[in-house]
């Protein structure tokens, strides 16, 4: 009895969450608030029909209303397809959004990490320890020594003669050091910004860690024979969600059929008290042929019929 109660609670919970999933997905398809409300109500109505139509179809079938029963089961098939599509949409939409967000984060982390490594290698190649201001001061000190070639070389920027090169060499060396110092400072600032940006991002290295890990585990367990990809695992996960929804609808159909069968059996049992009122049983210990007339009593065999109905109900 306790197990039956637990199963009933679980079944009701599954039905409740299934209806909520369909309502949520229906609301997501609307462009306005009113359209979302209408689509959500339509989804709830379709899912509710999928819950009650099996019992209705069973009752109509037992009442020999075959056309109406066929219509009920056909409508149930349609609502089942709608419910399955809603479940697929709910699963794919949520999984796709989450994996897309994680993929974007993982791609950003990968791009920033590659840029960070590139800048670190470039920074290690710069050996200039002086600051830009210190080098500027040294340039001002060295500039008077190039007065003889200053005008001829346009400020030591157009050196063509060996003597001019010798005169401008100290200044050109300082200018080169100044350029390295400026690049060094720019790299340090960019490295700092990249480190802050990477720290702000969530720790995501792959878009779908569950699918990726499951695929790698399957390949490892089969020594590489099973060429399973994360996309295969993702599709299997969606298929499992669809099969779970199908099992829920199948259970609803089975429970409805059982409820219809029990209701019919109870109606047939309810006919027995009416027959009892119409045909009073004699006080004789048997209900067989009458000792006076030798004919069978009109209510003979009622007990066996009741037992057969109870057996059918069980």
Tell me what the structure shows.
With 314 residues, the chain is an all-alpha fold. The chain folds into 2 domains: 1-102 and 209-279 and 297-314, no CATH class; 126-207, no CATH class. Helices cover 78% and strands 0% of the residues. It is built from 9 helices and no strands. Helix 3 packs antiparallel against helix 6.
Tally the helices. 9
Poorly predicted ranges? 278-306
Secondary structure category? mainly alpha
What string, H for helix and E for strand, traces the elements in order? HHHHHHHHH
Shape: rod-shaped
- Percentage of residues in helical conformation: over 70%
Number of domains: 2
Can you give the mean pLDDT? 76
Largest sheet: none
Radius of gyration: 43 Å
Range of strand content: under 5%
Q: Tell me the span between the first and last alpha carbons.
A: 16 Å
What's the total number of strands?
0
Task: Write out key terms for the chains shown.
single chain; 314 residues; mainly alpha; 2 domains; 9 helices
Furnish the topology, listing elements before pairings:
Elements: H1 2-28, H2 33-62, H3 66-125, H4 132-142, H5 147-150, H6 162-200, H7 209-221, H8 230-278, H9 302-313
Briefly say what this structure is.
The protein has 314 residues and is an all-alpha fold.
């Amino acid at each position: 009895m306790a197990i039956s109660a637990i199963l009933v609670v679980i079944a009701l919970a599954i039905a409740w969450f299934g209806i909520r999933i369909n309502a949520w997905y229906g609301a997501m398809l609307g462009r306005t608030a009113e359209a979302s409300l209408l689509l959500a109500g339509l989804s709830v109505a379709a899912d509710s029909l999928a819950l009650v139509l099996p019992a209705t179809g069973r009752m109509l079938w037992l009442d020999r209303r075959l056309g109406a029963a066929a219509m009920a089961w056909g409508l149930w098939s349609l609502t089942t397809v709608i419910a399955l599509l809603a479940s697929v949409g709910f699963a794919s939409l949520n999984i796709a959004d989450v994996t897309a967000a994680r993929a974007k984060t993982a791609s950003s982390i990968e791009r920033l990490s590659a840029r960070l490594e590139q800048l670190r290698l470039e920074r290690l190649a710069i050996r200039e320890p002086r600051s830009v201001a210190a080098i500027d001061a040294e340039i001002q000190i060295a500039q008077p020594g190039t007065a003889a070639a200053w005008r001829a070389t346009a400020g030591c920027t157009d050196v063509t003669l060996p003597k001019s090169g010798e005169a401008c060499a100290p200044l050109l060396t300082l200018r080169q050091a100044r350029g390295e110092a400026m690049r060094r400072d720019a790299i340090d600032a960019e490295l700092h910004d990249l480190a802050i940006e990477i720290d702000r991002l969530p720790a995501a290295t792959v878009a779908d860690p569950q699918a990726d890990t499951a695929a790698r585990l399957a390949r490892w367990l089969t020594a590489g024979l099973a060429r399973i990809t994360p996309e295969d695992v993702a599709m299997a996960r969606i298929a499992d969600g669809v099969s779970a929804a199908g099992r829920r609808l199948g259970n609803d159909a089975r429970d409805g059929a059982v409820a219809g069968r029990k209701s019919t059996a109870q109606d047939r049992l309810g006919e027995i008290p009416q027959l009892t009122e119409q045909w009073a049983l004699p006080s004789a210990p048997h209900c067989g042929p009458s000792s006076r007339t030798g004919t069978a009593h009109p209510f003979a065999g009622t007990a066996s019929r009741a037992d057969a109905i109870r057996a059918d109900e069980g």
